[in-house]
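Tokens for chain A. Residues wanted.
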């Protein structure tokens, strides 16, 4: 059954679309560098706990809100309680802050894809990365290609086609990551990296680590941005019977990709002498260095960055779609006009983000460059805030029992407890602790 809002042909369609949105730079780029910055095992522990008790709870909530209201996020919150319409608008703002700098990193991936043969055989891998991101025009050009491709896909509305493609991309990504992990784990001193990743150092376990972990969970499973409300609204009538079957595969796939990435990066970091403080460059330095140790590494490298690129662009497309559907539904724009406006906005903000590693490096706000500041604002402020407000809204204003017909979970009691208590208290404590 196709209605005018579109619908999924099967539950599998929803699972694939959600996994395509979830698995992306968050797993392969952001997760390892935050884990490195926040001391390894302690961060991982916080990350896993928050995924299960807060992240998954909010995914369930968002899908259920989508099924119940059959509207986009602004309409969904607004139709239940007009005072909460702003939450939907906040979702649109958050995705619009993320997309431009996300696309800058997407551009770096394109550069590595285009020049994999060079990047694999470097004397100094870190210098190679820094030369790329600080260059005058090169990163800008790759960023522009990435954002043009994203806009074109959104403009033609071919997401569904792309998502079908993800049936192949995701298994391919998993396969390659497993191969890479095996290579990394068999390097000398790899065990040091495994220890760093899995054994928590509790002296590093503080509110800031946990807030970083929370931001990362939200960013990575795409929660707190209304994506699942929109996707849930496309579920056909019997969708609610299987909400659990939709959610767990997505959360699990996302977490597994992050774990595999960590299990590849950290052993290699210790074995190949890579600096833990490489920051945003960690994955771009580590992976090529591993490829350098592999037979036919250059071929592997092309395949890896191609898949990495697809994972990134499918997420970028779903980020852009949030703003576009808001402009179309709420401001009554045509798709063409909406895409143009969003595209121009992304080009301006993304260019400043890209240049903030080079020419605009001197321009900092509260000690962070423009790129880092956008990431901090979206992931450490807006996402936890949106998680807090959504859980208050559903836990206390609407009442989780009103969603029971849609959630219909075996773990219903646990879900209700999490949405009423765990999610709001956890988000609030971390947030206040870090802001004060
Ligand atoms: N979850 C995506 C990633 O890990 C990013 C994203 C966030 C995509 C929100 C869509 C919406 O890369």
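Reply:
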């Amino acid at each position: 059954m196709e209605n005018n809002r579109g619908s999924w042909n099967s539950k599998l369609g929803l699972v694939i679309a959600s996994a395509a949105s979830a698995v992306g730079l968050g797993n392969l780029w952001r997760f390892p560098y935050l884990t490195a910055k926040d001391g390894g095992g302690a961060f991982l522990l916080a990350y896993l706990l928050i995924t299960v008790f807060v992240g998954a709870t909010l995914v369930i909530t968002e899908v259920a809100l989508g099924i119940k209201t059959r509207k986009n996020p602004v309409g969904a919150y607004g139709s239940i309680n007009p005072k909460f319409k702003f939450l939907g608008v906040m979702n649109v703002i958050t995705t619009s802050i993320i997309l431009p700098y996300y696309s800058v990193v997407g551009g770096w991936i394109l550069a590595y894809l285009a020049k994999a043969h060079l990047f694999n055989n470097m004397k100094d891998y870190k210098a190679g990365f820094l030369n790329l991101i600080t260059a005058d025009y090169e990163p800008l050009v790759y960023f522009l290609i990435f954002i043009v491709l994203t806009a074109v896909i959104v403009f033609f509305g071919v997401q569904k086609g792309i998502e079908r493609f993800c049936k192949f991309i995701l298994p391919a990504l998993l396969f390659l990551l497993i191969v890479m992990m095996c290579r990394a784990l068999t390097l000398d001193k790899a065990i040091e990296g495994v220890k760093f990743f899995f054994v928590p150092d509790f002296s590093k376990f503080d509110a800031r680590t946990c807030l970083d972990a929370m931001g990362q969970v939200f960013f990575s499973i795409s929660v707190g941005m209304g994506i699942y409300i929109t996707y849930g609204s496309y579920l056909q009538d019997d969708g609610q019977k299987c909400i659990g079957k939709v959610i767990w595969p997505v959360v699990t796939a996302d977490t597994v990709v992050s774990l595999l990435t960590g299990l590849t990066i950290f052993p290699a970091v210790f074995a190949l002498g890579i600096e833990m403080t490489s920051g945003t460059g960690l994955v771009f330095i580590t992976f090529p260095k591993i490829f350098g140790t592999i037979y036919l590494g250059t071929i592997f490298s092309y395949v890896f960055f191609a898949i990495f690129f697809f994972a990134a662009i499918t997420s970028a497309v779903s980020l852009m779609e949030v703003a576009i559907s808001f402009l179309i539904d709420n401001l009554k724009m045509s798709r063409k006009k909406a895409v143009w406006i969003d595209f121009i906005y992304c080009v301006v903000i993304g260019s400043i983000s890209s240049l903030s590693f080079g020419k605009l490096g001197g321009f900092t706000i509260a000690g962070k460059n423009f790129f880092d500041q956008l990431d901090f604002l979206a992931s450490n402020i807006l996402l936890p805030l949106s998680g807090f407000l959504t859980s208050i809204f559903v836990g206390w204003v609407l009442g989780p029992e009103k969603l029971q017909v849609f959630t219909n979970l075996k773990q219903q009691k646990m879900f209700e407890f999490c949405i009423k208590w765990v999610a709001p208290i956890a988000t609030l404590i971390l947030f206040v602790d870090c802001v004060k």
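Residues 21-22, 24-27, 95, 219-220, 222, 225, 227, 315, 318-319 surround phenylalanine (CB under 6 Å). Strands lie at 364-365, 368-369.
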